[in-house]
Design a protein that fits this description.
398 residues, alpha/beta, 8-stranded mixed beta sheet, 14 strands, flat, 6-stranded mixed beta sheet
Length: 398
Protein backbone atom coordinates (compact mmCIF):
# COMPACT_ATOMS: atom_id res chain seq x y z
CA UNK A 1 0.00 0.00 0.00
CA UNK A 2 1.33 3.44 -0.94
CA UNK A 3 2.28 5.66 2.00
CA UNK A 4 0.46 8.99 2.25
CA UNK A 5 2.51 11.99 1.14
CA UNK A 6 4.56 13.88 3.73
CA UNK A 7 2.98 16.92 5.33
CA UNK A 8 4.57 20.27 6.11
CA UNK A 9 3.60 23.42 8.01
CA UNK A 10 5.20 26.55 9.38
CA UNK A 11 4.87 26.17 13.15
CA UNK A 12 5.86 29.71 14.09
CA UNK A 13 3.29 32.53 14.18
CA UNK A 14 2.60 34.31 10.85
CA UNK A 15 4.49 37.48 11.71
CA UNK A 16 7.92 38.97 11.11
CA UNK A 17 10.42 37.28 13.40
CA UNK A 18 14.02 36.22 13.73
CA UNK A 19 13.33 32.52 13.13
CA UNK A 20 10.67 30.54 11.29
CA UNK A 21 10.29 26.79 11.84
CA UNK A 22 8.99 24.61 9.00
CA UNK A 23 8.34 21.02 9.96
CA UNK A 24 8.05 18.17 7.45
CA UNK A 25 6.49 14.89 8.66
CA UNK A 26 5.95 11.61 6.83
CA UNK A 27 7.31 8.20 5.86
CA UNK A 28 9.29 9.72 2.98
CA UNK A 29 9.98 13.19 4.36
CA UNK A 30 13.72 12.73 3.87
CA UNK A 31 13.24 11.91 0.18
CA UNK A 32 11.36 15.18 -0.33
CA UNK A 33 13.88 17.38 1.51
CA UNK A 34 17.22 15.77 0.61
CA UNK A 35 17.44 17.23 -2.95
CA UNK A 36 17.22 20.77 -1.57
CA UNK A 37 19.99 20.71 1.05
CA UNK A 38 23.66 21.42 0.43
CA UNK A 39 26.68 21.54 2.72
CA UNK A 40 28.96 23.86 0.79
CA UNK A 41 28.64 22.42 -2.72
CA UNK A 42 28.04 18.84 -1.56
CA UNK A 43 24.61 17.20 -1.30
CA UNK A 44 23.32 16.21 2.12
CA UNK A 45 21.81 12.83 3.07
CA UNK A 46 19.57 13.27 6.12
CA UNK A 47 19.27 9.50 6.50
CA UNK A 48 22.90 9.41 7.69
CA UNK A 49 22.43 11.98 10.46
CA UNK A 50 22.11 11.18 14.15
CA UNK A 51 18.69 11.92 15.64
CA UNK A 52 18.25 15.53 16.79
CA UNK A 53 21.70 16.54 15.55
CA UNK A 54 21.70 20.19 14.43
CA UNK A 55 23.54 21.10 11.23
CA UNK A 56 23.79 24.28 9.20
CA UNK A 57 22.94 23.76 5.50
CA UNK A 58 21.91 25.74 2.48
CA UNK A 59 18.30 25.32 1.42
CA UNK A 60 18.22 25.53 -2.37
CA UNK A 61 15.64 25.48 -5.12
CA UNK A 62 17.50 24.41 -8.24
CA UNK A 63 20.39 26.82 -8.66
CA UNK A 64 18.92 29.42 -6.28
CA UNK A 65 19.63 29.58 -2.56
CA UNK A 66 16.48 30.19 -0.53
CA UNK A 67 18.19 30.57 2.84
CA UNK A 68 20.71 29.19 5.29
CA UNK A 69 18.89 26.68 7.48
CA UNK A 70 19.59 24.92 10.76
CA UNK A 71 18.26 21.40 10.16
CA UNK A 72 17.59 18.37 12.33
CA UNK A 73 15.87 15.04 11.70
CA UNK A 74 14.31 12.42 13.97
CA UNK A 75 11.65 9.69 13.98
CA UNK A 76 8.43 10.09 15.96
CA UNK A 77 6.55 7.41 17.92
CA UNK A 78 4.56 6.47 14.80
CA UNK A 79 7.73 5.72 12.85
CA UNK A 80 7.41 8.83 10.67
CA UNK A 81 10.38 10.95 9.72
CA UNK A 82 10.30 14.46 11.21
CA UNK A 83 12.50 17.20 9.72
CA UNK A 84 12.80 20.66 11.26
CA UNK A 85 13.97 23.47 8.97
CA UNK A 86 14.87 26.55 11.01
CA UNK A 87 14.96 29.51 8.62
CA UNK A 88 15.11 33.28 8.87
CA UNK A 89 11.66 34.61 9.73
CA UNK A 90 10.79 36.60 6.61
CA UNK A 91 7.40 35.71 5.13
CA UNK A 92 8.83 35.50 1.61
CA UNK A 93 11.44 32.91 2.65
CA UNK A 94 8.78 30.76 4.31
CA UNK A 95 6.50 31.01 1.28
CA UNK A 96 9.27 29.98 -1.16
CA UNK A 97 10.27 27.02 1.00
CA UNK A 98 6.69 25.75 1.29
CA UNK A 99 6.06 26.11 -2.45
CA UNK A 100 9.26 24.17 -3.16
CA UNK A 101 8.17 21.36 -0.83
CA UNK A 102 4.74 21.33 -2.44
CA UNK A 103 6.34 20.68 -5.84
CA UNK A 104 8.05 17.65 -4.28
CA UNK A 105 4.65 16.19 -3.44
CA UNK A 106 4.52 17.41 0.17
CA UNK A 107 1.04 18.39 1.36
CA UNK A 108 1.01 21.82 3.03
CA UNK A 109 -1.30 21.78 6.06
CA UNK A 110 -2.35 23.98 8.94
CA UNK A 111 0.13 23.83 11.86
CA UNK A 112 -2.44 22.27 14.20
CA UNK A 113 -2.59 19.15 11.98
CA UNK A 114 1.00 18.27 12.89
CA UNK A 115 0.74 18.80 16.63
CA UNK A 116 -0.73 15.41 17.53
CA UNK A 117 2.08 13.54 15.74
CA UNK A 118 5.06 15.59 16.90
CA UNK A 119 4.21 17.33 20.16
CA UNK A 120 2.97 14.86 22.80
CA UNK A 121 1.10 16.52 25.65
CA UNK A 122 0.84 15.00 29.14
CA UNK A 123 -2.59 16.41 30.02
CA UNK A 124 -5.81 17.59 28.35
CA UNK A 125 -5.06 21.12 29.53
CA UNK A 126 -1.67 21.04 27.82
CA UNK A 127 -3.30 19.73 24.63
CA UNK A 128 -5.74 22.65 24.68
CA UNK A 129 -2.99 25.23 25.20
CA UNK A 130 -0.59 23.89 22.57
CA UNK A 131 -2.45 25.19 19.45
CA UNK A 132 -2.52 28.67 21.00
CA UNK A 133 1.28 28.68 21.08
CA UNK A 134 1.26 28.66 17.28
CA UNK A 135 -0.41 32.07 17.20
CA UNK A 136 1.34 33.69 20.18
CA UNK A 137 2.19 37.25 19.15
CA UNK A 138 4.93 37.89 21.73
CA UNK A 139 7.63 35.86 23.44
CA UNK A 140 6.14 36.61 26.85
CA UNK A 141 2.75 35.30 25.70
CA UNK A 142 4.35 32.09 24.45
CA UNK A 143 6.18 31.52 27.76
CA UNK A 144 2.97 32.19 29.70
CA UNK A 145 0.98 29.76 27.53
CA UNK A 146 3.62 27.06 27.96
CA UNK A 147 3.34 27.35 31.76
CA UNK A 148 -0.40 28.00 31.92
CA UNK A 149 -1.70 24.38 32.04
CA UNK A 150 0.33 23.52 35.16
CA UNK A 151 -0.46 26.84 36.85
CA UNK A 152 -4.19 26.50 36.15
CA UNK A 153 -4.27 22.91 37.45
CA UNK A 154 -2.74 24.10 40.73
CA UNK A 155 -5.17 26.98 41.08
CA UNK A 156 -8.22 24.82 40.34
CA UNK A 157 -7.00 22.19 42.82
CA UNK A 158 -6.95 24.89 45.52
CA UNK A 159 -10.50 25.94 44.64
CA UNK A 160 -11.69 22.32 44.70
CA UNK A 161 -10.30 21.97 48.23
CA UNK A 162 -12.21 25.13 49.23
CA UNK A 163 -15.42 23.78 47.69
CA UNK A 164 -15.14 20.50 49.58
CA UNK A 165 -14.35 21.83 53.03
CA UNK A 166 -14.72 25.60 53.22
CA UNK A 167 -17.65 28.06 53.30
CA UNK A 168 -19.44 28.17 49.91
CA UNK A 169 -19.10 31.97 49.87
CA UNK A 170 -15.29 31.67 49.86
CA UNK A 171 -15.38 29.23 46.95
CA UNK A 172 -17.76 31.51 45.02
CA UNK A 173 -15.39 34.46 45.55
CA UNK A 174 -12.50 32.35 44.24
CA UNK A 175 -14.56 31.41 41.17
CA UNK A 176 -15.46 35.06 40.56
CA UNK A 177 -11.75 35.90 40.62
CA UNK A 178 -11.07 33.04 38.20
CA UNK A 179 -13.72 34.32 35.77
CA UNK A 180 -12.33 37.86 35.96
CA UNK A 181 -8.87 36.52 35.12
CA UNK A 182 -10.36 34.59 32.19
CA UNK A 183 -11.22 37.91 30.54
CA UNK A 184 -7.64 39.08 30.97
CA UNK A 185 -6.36 35.79 29.56
CA UNK A 186 -8.35 36.38 26.38
CA UNK A 187 -6.64 39.74 25.96
CA UNK A 188 -3.24 38.06 26.26
CA UNK A 189 -4.16 35.36 23.74
CA UNK A 190 -5.96 37.49 21.16
CA UNK A 191 -4.46 40.91 21.85
CA UNK A 192 -5.72 44.26 23.14
CA UNK A 193 -7.46 46.56 20.67
CA UNK A 194 -6.61 50.20 21.46
CA UNK A 195 -8.52 52.71 19.32
CA UNK A 196 -7.20 56.26 18.87
CA UNK A 197 -9.79 59.02 18.46
CA UNK A 198 -9.44 62.79 18.29
CA UNK A 199 -9.89 65.86 16.16
CA UNK A 200 -7.87 66.27 12.95
CA UNK A 201 -4.20 67.14 13.43
CA UNK A 202 -4.22 66.20 17.12
CA UNK A 203 -1.33 63.77 16.50
CA UNK A 204 -3.09 60.39 16.39
CA UNK A 205 -0.98 58.98 13.55
CA UNK A 206 2.26 60.13 15.16
CA UNK A 207 1.15 58.49 18.40
CA UNK A 208 0.21 55.28 16.56
CA UNK A 209 3.73 55.15 15.15
CA UNK A 210 5.23 55.81 18.58
CA UNK A 211 3.24 53.03 20.26
CA UNK A 212 3.98 50.58 17.43
CA UNK A 213 7.65 51.66 17.45
CA UNK A 214 7.76 51.80 13.68
CA UNK A 215 6.63 54.21 10.94
CA UNK A 216 3.35 52.68 9.75
CA UNK A 217 1.01 55.65 9.52
CA UNK A 218 1.50 58.59 7.15
CA UNK A 219 2.13 61.74 9.20
CA UNK A 220 1.42 65.27 7.96
CA UNK A 221 0.72 68.71 9.40
CA UNK A 222 -2.27 68.91 7.05
CA UNK A 223 -5.50 68.13 8.97
CA UNK A 224 -7.44 65.15 7.66
CA UNK A 225 -4.49 63.16 6.27
CA UNK A 226 -5.90 59.90 7.71
CA UNK A 227 -9.03 59.12 5.66
CA UNK A 228 -9.77 55.64 7.02
CA UNK A 229 -8.83 53.53 10.02
CA UNK A 230 -5.61 51.50 9.96
CA UNK A 231 -4.20 48.82 12.27
CA UNK A 232 -0.66 48.67 13.68
CA UNK A 233 0.69 45.67 15.65
CA UNK A 234 2.46 46.53 18.89
CA UNK A 235 3.51 45.05 22.22
CA UNK A 236 3.61 46.67 25.64
CA UNK A 237 5.58 44.76 28.29
CA UNK A 238 4.94 41.62 26.24
CA UNK A 239 1.16 42.19 26.04
CA UNK A 240 0.09 42.06 22.37
CA UNK A 241 -1.74 45.18 21.18
CA UNK A 242 -3.35 46.34 17.97
CA UNK A 243 -3.24 50.13 17.72
CA UNK A 244 -6.11 51.43 15.57
CA UNK A 245 -5.54 54.85 14.02
CA UNK A 246 -8.74 56.57 12.88
CA UNK A 247 -9.75 59.59 10.86
CA UNK A 248 -10.01 62.91 12.71
CA UNK A 249 -13.50 63.50 14.06
CA UNK A 250 -15.07 66.87 13.30
CA UNK A 251 -18.21 68.36 11.74
CA UNK A 252 -17.90 68.23 7.94
CA UNK A 253 -19.98 68.43 4.77
CA UNK A 254 -17.45 66.38 2.78
CA UNK A 255 -19.16 62.99 2.14
CA UNK A 256 -15.84 61.08 1.95
CA UNK A 257 -14.58 62.57 5.20
CA UNK A 258 -17.99 62.02 6.80
CA UNK A 259 -17.82 58.30 5.92
CA UNK A 260 -14.29 58.08 7.35
CA UNK A 261 -15.55 59.67 10.58
CA UNK A 262 -18.48 57.23 10.73
CA UNK A 263 -16.02 54.35 10.37
CA UNK A 264 -13.87 55.80 13.15
CA UNK A 265 -16.87 55.87 15.47
CA UNK A 266 -17.67 52.25 14.60
CA UNK A 267 -14.12 51.26 15.51
CA UNK A 268 -14.70 52.63 19.01
CA UNK A 269 -17.27 49.86 19.50
CA UNK A 270 -14.54 47.23 18.94
CA UNK A 271 -12.09 48.73 21.45
CA UNK A 272 -10.81 47.19 24.67
CA UNK A 273 -9.42 50.63 25.55
CA UNK A 274 -10.03 54.03 23.93
CA UNK A 275 -7.24 56.61 23.62
CA UNK A 276 -8.65 60.12 23.16
CA UNK A 277 -5.95 62.42 21.75
CA UNK A 278 -6.21 66.12 22.62
CA UNK A 279 -4.08 68.91 21.12
CA UNK A 280 -2.55 71.02 23.91
CA UNK A 281 -1.70 73.85 21.51
CA UNK A 282 -5.36 74.52 20.68
CA UNK A 283 -8.10 75.85 22.98
CA UNK A 284 -10.52 73.16 24.25
CA UNK A 285 -14.10 73.13 23.07
CA UNK A 286 -17.19 70.95 23.48
CA UNK A 287 -16.11 68.76 20.58
CA UNK A 288 -13.10 67.59 22.61
CA UNK A 289 -15.47 65.98 25.12
CA UNK A 290 -17.91 64.57 22.55
CA UNK A 291 -15.88 62.79 19.90
CA UNK A 292 -17.78 59.54 19.62
CA UNK A 293 -21.34 60.34 18.67
CA UNK A 294 -24.30 58.54 20.28
CA UNK A 295 -23.03 54.97 19.79
CA UNK A 296 -19.49 55.83 20.76
CA UNK A 297 -20.54 57.58 23.95
CA UNK A 298 -22.33 54.41 25.02
CA UNK A 299 -19.19 52.39 24.28
CA UNK A 300 -17.07 54.97 26.06
CA UNK A 301 -19.09 54.49 29.26
CA UNK A 302 -18.29 50.74 29.29
CA UNK A 303 -14.78 50.76 27.83
CA UNK A 304 -11.75 52.22 29.64
CA UNK A 305 -10.96 55.70 28.30
CA UNK A 306 -7.52 57.30 28.53
CA UNK A 307 -7.17 60.99 27.74
CA UNK A 308 -3.87 61.85 26.08
CA UNK A 309 -2.82 65.51 25.96
CA UNK A 310 -0.37 65.71 23.08
CA UNK A 311 2.26 68.23 21.89
CA UNK A 312 3.61 69.07 25.33
CA UNK A 313 6.88 69.98 23.58
CA UNK A 314 5.15 73.00 21.98
CA UNK A 315 3.69 76.14 23.61
CA UNK A 316 0.59 75.02 25.53
CA UNK A 317 -2.61 77.04 25.18
CA UNK A 318 -3.44 78.75 28.52
CA UNK A 319 -6.89 77.11 28.71
CA UNK A 320 -5.28 73.65 28.52
CA UNK A 321 -3.17 74.15 31.67
CA UNK A 322 -5.41 72.25 34.13
CA UNK A 323 -7.08 69.72 31.80
CA UNK A 324 -6.92 66.03 32.60
CA UNK A 325 -7.20 66.19 36.38
CA UNK A 326 -9.36 63.59 38.11
CA UNK A 327 -9.44 60.93 35.36
CA UNK A 328 -6.96 58.58 33.63
CA UNK A 329 -4.81 60.92 31.58
CA UNK A 330 -1.24 61.64 30.59
CA UNK A 331 0.61 64.49 28.91
CA UNK A 332 2.92 63.47 26.10
CA UNK A 333 4.77 64.47 23.00
CA UNK A 334 4.16 61.79 20.39
CA UNK A 335 6.84 63.48 18.26
CA UNK A 336 9.66 63.42 20.84
CA UNK A 337 8.53 60.42 22.89
CA UNK A 338 8.07 62.35 26.12
CA UNK A 339 5.46 60.63 28.32
CA UNK A 340 5.04 57.59 26.04
CA UNK A 341 6.32 55.13 28.68
CA UNK A 342 3.85 56.59 31.19
CA UNK A 343 1.07 56.13 28.62
CA UNK A 344 2.05 52.49 28.08
CA UNK A 345 1.85 51.83 31.83
CA UNK A 346 -1.51 53.58 32.03
CA UNK A 347 -2.92 51.46 29.21
CA UNK A 348 -1.88 48.26 30.99
CA UNK A 349 -3.45 49.49 34.22
CA UNK A 350 -6.73 50.22 32.45
CA UNK A 351 -7.05 46.69 31.03
CA UNK A 352 -6.14 45.07 34.36
CA UNK A 353 -2.64 43.89 33.44
CA UNK A 354 -0.31 46.27 35.32
CA UNK A 355 3.39 46.14 34.48
CA UNK A 356 4.69 44.45 37.61
CA UNK A 357 1.86 41.93 38.07
CA UNK A 358 2.15 38.25 37.20
CA UNK A 359 -0.07 37.11 34.38
CA UNK A 360 -3.09 35.11 35.54
CA UNK A 361 -3.47 31.34 35.75
CA UNK A 362 -6.91 31.46 34.19
CA UNK A 363 -9.36 29.47 32.06
CA UNK A 364 -8.40 30.01 28.42
CA UNK A 365 -11.09 28.20 26.42
CA UNK A 366 -14.86 28.70 26.21
CA UNK A 367 -15.39 25.19 27.58
CA UNK A 368 -13.28 25.91 30.66
CA UNK A 369 -15.06 29.21 31.30
CA UNK A 370 -18.44 27.47 31.07
CA UNK A 371 -17.30 24.82 33.58
CA UNK A 372 -16.30 27.61 35.94
CA UNK A 373 -19.71 29.26 35.58
CA UNK A 374 -21.52 25.98 36.19
CA UNK A 375 -19.46 25.37 39.33
CA UNK A 376 -20.40 28.81 40.60
CA UNK A 377 -24.08 28.19 39.81
CA UNK A 378 -23.96 24.92 41.75
CA UNK A 379 -22.75 26.78 44.84
CA UNK A 380 -25.11 29.77 44.70
CA UNK A 381 -28.45 27.95 44.80
CA UNK A 382 -30.68 27.62 47.85
CA UNK A 383 -28.79 24.45 48.76
CA UNK A 384 -25.15 24.48 47.55
CA UNK A 385 -24.36 21.37 45.51
CA UNK A 386 -20.72 20.76 46.38
CA UNK A 387 -20.34 17.45 44.47
CA UNK A 388 -21.64 19.02 41.25
CA UNK A 389 -19.33 22.02 41.65
CA UNK A 390 -16.35 19.70 42.17
CA UNK A 391 -17.34 17.66 39.12
CA UNK A 392 -17.43 20.83 36.96
CA UNK A 393 -14.02 21.93 38.21
CA UNK A 394 -12.50 18.48 37.66
CA UNK A 395 -13.66 18.67 34.04
CA UNK A 396 -11.99 22.05 33.68
CA UNK A 397 -8.60 20.92 34.87
CA UNK A 398 -8.68 17.72 32.79
Amino acid sequence: MTSPPPQAACLTPPAIGGIALIQVVGRNAIGAVNPHLLKGQRPVDLAQWRADELRLCRLVDGSETIDDAVVCVRTNESGEQVIDLNLHGGARIVQRALLMLQREGVRIVEPAELLHTCWPTPTRLAAKALPLLLTARTRRTAVWLARLPDLLRERVATIIAAVRSGPPADAVAALDSLLADARRAQLLIHGVRAVLVGKPNSGKSTLANALAEREHAVVSDTPGTTRDWTEHPAAIEGVPFTIVDTAGIRHTDDPIEAEAIARARRQVLTAHVIIRVNDLTQPPDKQDEDLFGADGQAAGEQTPLVDVYNKVDLPVHPKQAARGEGKPSVRISARTGQGIDRLRSLLLDQIGLPCQADWPAAPFTAEQIECCRQAKAALTGVSPDRPRAVDCLEKMRG
